[in-house]
Design brief:
Blueprint: H1 17-34, E1 57-60, E2 70-73
Antiparallel strand pairs: 1-2
């Protein structure tokens, strides 16, 4: 075998037009018989730094796919309101 010849007989079709056409046809046949393979999505989650916004509403808009946009509503905690003790009834 010379240095320019491929190791295996099938390797000579790897970068040729005929090899590309045959590979595309076989992949199309696989998709037709088995269905397209499911693509896995990677989910990344991270804590957002800082406190939630003052109105308690956050919007995460996905411009590529609006159906994947998310609105997060945080419970709004009222400011520290001290309850005044009831005054004595002056009629007593």
């Amino acid at each position: 075998m010379s240095a320019t010849e491929p190791e295996r007989r099938a390797d000579r079709f790897r970068h040729s037009a005929a090899g590309t056409v045959i590979a595309a046809g076989l992949l199309g046949l696989r998709d037709a018989l088995e269905g397209r393979p499911e693509q896995e999505e990677t989910v990344l989650e991270a804590e957002a730094p800082g406190a939630p916004p003052p109105d308690g509403i956050e919007l995460f808009l996905d411009p590529d796919d609006p159906t994947r946009s998310v609105v997060v509503i945080h419970p709004v905690v009222a400011a520290d309101v001290s309850v005044a003790a009831p005054a004595d009834d002056p009629g007593d």
